[in-house]
Amino acid sequence: MKTLVICSGGLDSVSLAHVAAGTRELTRLVSFDYGQRHLKELDFAAAAARRLGVPHHVIDMRTIGAALTGSALTDDIDVPDGHYAEETMRITVVPNRNAIMLAVAYGIAAANGDEAVATAVHGGDHFIYPDCRPAFTEAFDRMQRAALDGYADVSLWTPFVHRTKADIVTEGAHHGTPFAATWSCYKGGAQHCGRCGTCVERREAFHLARVEDPTEYEDPDFWRQAIADHGGA
């Protein structure tokens, strides 16, 4: 099945791109510049497209992102440290971000004859991000089928939506994902900070998957305390 992958350059979406390349016909990667402070992730998405030999489309959504105020990912607000599943992480929500990106991706897919749009939303996102939950993805797929009825037949592929980030690491490793060539950190420094929610989640995922983590963190041990404070593994 001809499949477009929405790729941020992070561990989840780059792994998904490699899974798609190994199990489907990967046609293109689509990334979005919405004014995120960790913009360097797009360089990792571009590298993934080159590695996999497919086109890379970068959609300029900066004017839209500027209107979606109040998130630590776009505004001058400190990104909190700690576990992803903490109330403090709600400050990283960019309202309706996935819905907007998916709508654009569906249009690109329909215009290019692709049969599926893939996104790497996963079970660990459900607590914080409403537009990563199964209820949203299932409803969005139905809506887009109606929107394109009679013009194109494009489905939504979300293979990780009921799975954990550790599962993604396992699957990504199986398909040869070069994890060092992915970027997760929300703070966008020279290295992964090791303290923000997505760094903690990333480090924990490698630990649970029993896969070596090649990532260089500024604070490589903070995750253990964050997990303990949250009552995790």
Automatic annotation (TrEMBL):
Pfam families the UniProt entry points to: QueC
Segments traversing the membrane: none
Keyword RNA-binding set for record: no
InterPro entries for the chain: QueC (IPR018317), Rossmann-like_a/b/a_fold (IPR014729)
MF annotations from Gene Ontology: ligase activity
Listed pathway(s): Purine metabolism; 7-cyano-7-deazaguanine biosynthesis
Cofactor: Zn(2+)
EC number of this enzyme: 6.3.4.20
The protein's name in its UniProt record: 7-cyano-7-deazaguanine synthase
Gene: queC
